């Protein structure tokens, strides 16, 4: 099957492109490289040194003999997008190609507008391009669990059946997103739903939780995982870095863990190995024509405060293990033995203690076997963090973007 991975140079996209190519899918990557540009504007670099996309793809071919096609351009440019689709002729499109940081979207008016134009226009263009030339192609679109917010009732997978004044209907689940970024995903969901209804397109919206981890251990060979030209990005900065990944890197450099507010904010999370498996499951089981499916894509729920405590404990345990097995400097081990947690004034507007219970059975029913958060995963993240800690710029750890201004 031919799969076009839009946003294939990014964190989820690069992992997915390699995994699907390894599984025998014919993979194309479309990416504008705008994320690398935003990193430059923010003057941050990923913890891990990522190679240029052409080098990455060349190395992949050398190691595996498998070809990945590359299309560099912006999906908000309709002519480029439709030309690319005609050239590649995808049977599935996996769409990761959006501005995905909540803090980035909250910097100022310009960033809010840019985020919503980039995301909403890009997705709308994909829908039109599919309608014109590939009406049978299956769109697998990355949404977010943050579309739902934190309601005081259970969160269903996309739809909820409501009885009101003696009548009953199944309706889209109410949305209460917490940033202009999360709002862009809500707008996308509505546009995709509508396009499926009027044009008979098929789409799956994957409301993904926070992704953690970097290596596809157990899914790709050790030789591939250890190859630096194939390494994935791992963001630690306060704009693009996400909770658990950030905490592991903070622990490794001896920075107190940055819990915002009381830390009772609870979210769905998943290992990046489950992200790539979910993509495979979604494309192998396409939605019916005219159907807009919604799956909640996470495997476990944790509060931010609990994640920090888990990293603190993992640091101590790691010292015991690593002291024997790894060639680490004494200060690496001291940092990990003594991880502190700071409860910072929350730069966001969000509930810090709330009910959170979300369903996630659709992907499990289709065969997802989760990698639950484990000591070995935290060890692996801590290992990466220690290996590349010289690359960390400590000025980018504390949050500078505020929802209040
Ligand atoms: P990322 O920033 O690492 O990658 C996104 C990629 O898309 C980048 O390479 C970027 O250059 C590209 N891109 C952005 N706009 C584009 C455009 N207009 N045209 C072409 N390419 C464009 O992000 P990620 O962490 O890999 O996230 C991928 C998707 O998954 C996003 O839609 C995000 O909202 C969603 N998601 C991510 C997480 C997470 O924890 N990382 C969690 C839930 C959902
Ligand atoms: N948080 C901290 N400390 C930090 C970073 C974050 O306490 O150092 C808190 C935030 O206040 C928030 C929670 O952790 O309550 C999650 O924040 P995050 O930055 O890890 O994740 P978020 O902004 O929600 O966005 C990330 C991805 C986004 C995706 C989303 C999934 O960047 O693309 O859509 O996770 S979800 O959270 O389910 O909406």
Distance separating the two termini: 48 Å
> What is the typical, i.e. mean, pLDDT?
97
Topology-level CATH name of the domain at 2-235 and 269-299 and 355-370:
Rossmann fold
Secondary-structure element string: EHEHHEHEHHEEEHEEHHEEHEEHHEHH
In this entry the ligands are:
nicotinamide-adenine-dinucleotide, sulfoquinovose-uridine-C1,5'-diphosphate
Q: How would you name the CATH homologous superfamily of the domain at 2-235 and 269-299 and 355-370?
A: NAD(P)-binding Rossmann-like Domain
Residue stretches low in confidence (pLDDT < 50, at least 5 long) are none
CATH architecture of the domain at 2-235 and 269-299 and 355-370: 3-Layer(aba) Sandwich
- Total of helices: 14
Quaternary assembly: single chain
The gyration radius over C-alpha positions equals 21 Å
Number of extended strands: 14
Shape: globular
Strand order of the largest sheet: 3-2-1-4-5-8-12
- Main structural class: alpha/beta
Give the helices and strands, then pairings.
Elements: E1 2-6, H1 11-22, E2 26-31, H2 34-42, H3 53-64, E3 68-72, H4 78-88, E4 92-95, H5 102-105, H6 109-133, E5 138-144, E6 159-164, E7 167-172, H7 180-199, E8 202-208, E9 210-212, H8 222-226, H9 243-253, E10 257-260, E11 266-271, H10 272-284, E12 292-297, E13 300-303, H11 304-325, H12 330-337, E14 341-344, H13 361-365, H14 375-387
Parallel strand pairs: 1-2, 1-4, 2-3, 4-5, 5-8, 8-12, 9-11, 10-14
Antiparallel strand pairs: 6-7, 11-13
Bound molecules: nicotinamide-adenine-dinucleotide and sulfoquinovose-uridine-C1,5'-diphosphate.
Residues 100-102, 144-146, 209-210, 242-243, 246, 258-260, 265, 267-268, 304, 348, 350 line the site of sulfoquinovose-uridine-C1,5'-diphosphate.
């Amino acid at each position: 099957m031919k799969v076009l991975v839009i946003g294939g140079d990014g964190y989820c996209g690069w992992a997915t492109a390699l995994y699907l190519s390894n599984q025998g899918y014919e993979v194309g990557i479309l990416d504008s490289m705008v994320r690398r540009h935003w990193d430059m504007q923010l003057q941050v670099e990923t913890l891990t040194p990522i190679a240029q996309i052409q080098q990455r793809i060349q190395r992949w071919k050398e190691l595996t003999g498998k070809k990945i096609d590359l299309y560099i351009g912006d999906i908000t440019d309709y002519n480029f997008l439709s030309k690319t689709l005609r050239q590649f002729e995808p049977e599935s499109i996996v769409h990761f190609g959006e501005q995905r940081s909540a803090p980035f979207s909250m910097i100022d008016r310009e960033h809010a507008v840019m985020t919503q134009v980039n995301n909403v226009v890009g997705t709308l263009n994909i829908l039109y391009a599919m309608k014109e030339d590939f009406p049978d192609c299956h769109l697998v679109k990355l949404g977010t669990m943050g579309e739902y917010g934190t309601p005081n009732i259970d969160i269903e997978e996309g739809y909820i059946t409501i009885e009101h004044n003696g009548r009953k209907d199944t309706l889209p689940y109410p949305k209460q997103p917490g940033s202009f970024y999360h709002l862009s995903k809500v707008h996308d969901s509505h546009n995709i739903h509508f396009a499926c209804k009027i044009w008979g397109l098929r789409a799956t919206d994957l409301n993904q939780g926070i992704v953690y981890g970097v290596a596809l251990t157990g899914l790709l060979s050790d030789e591939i995982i250890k190859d630096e030209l194939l390494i994935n990005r791992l963001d630690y900065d306060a704009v693009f870095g996400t909770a658990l990944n950030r905490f592991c890197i903070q622990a490794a450099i001896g920075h107190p863990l940055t819990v915002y507010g009381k830390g009772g904010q609870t979210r769905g999370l998943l290992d990046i190995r489950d992200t790539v498996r979910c993509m495979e499951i979604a494309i192998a089981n396409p939605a019916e024509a005219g159907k807009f499916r919604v799956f909640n894509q996470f495997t476990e729920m944790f509060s931010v405060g609990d994640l920090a405590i888990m990293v603190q404990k993992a640091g101590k345990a790691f010292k015991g293990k690593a002291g024997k097995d790894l060639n680490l400097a004494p200060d690496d081990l001291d940092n990990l033995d003594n991880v502190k947690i700071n409860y910072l004034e929350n730069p966001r507007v969000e509930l810090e203690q709330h009910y959170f219970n979300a369903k996630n059975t659709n992907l499990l029913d289709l065969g997802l076997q989760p990698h639950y958060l484990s000591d070995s995963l935290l060890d692996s993240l801590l290992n990466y963090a220690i290996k590349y800690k010289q690359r960390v710029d400590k000025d980018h750890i504390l949050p500078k973007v505020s929802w209040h201004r």
